[in-house]
Amino acid sequence: MINASDQPLQSKTQHGFAPLAIARIKGAQRANQIAIYLIYAAILAFMVFGTIASIKAFHDNQLLYQLFYNLPYALIALTIPIAIYDALVIYRYRLNQPSMIALSIGVSAVVLIGGLLFADTAWLGLACWVGVAFLFKVSFKRFFNFLEAEAEADIIEEA
Hints:
With 159 residues, this protein is mostly helical. It is built from 6 helices and no strands. 22% of the residues are buried.
């Protein structure tokens, strides 16, 4: 029987990344994709309920107004914990520059908290969090494109 420690190092890692690290990064990428779906759902809810609420027959309907006003906020707010988890994974495995991660999370948090405390509004802060999800999407895509290019280069070297 062969122990894991007897196997060569190349079979344990994929271009310097352990299989557990690759799995964790893929999991964060899937979580980020869920956040992006929530953002699309928020945009759709804003458009649909805003359109319905603007119809004269529904001007006084409080439920439609609350769905138009609060549902997009709630859906985007659900992406904040996902974005923070993604930021920690991206920082841990150095998929992006630490200053870029800190800047995106920091500015989004400051704008959201400042808007809630001083301007009694959250729309600008939540719009910042929308941008964070798409920034992280690009980081994950670049990383997996890098791994794919490295695998293709290894195949060409072996031939």
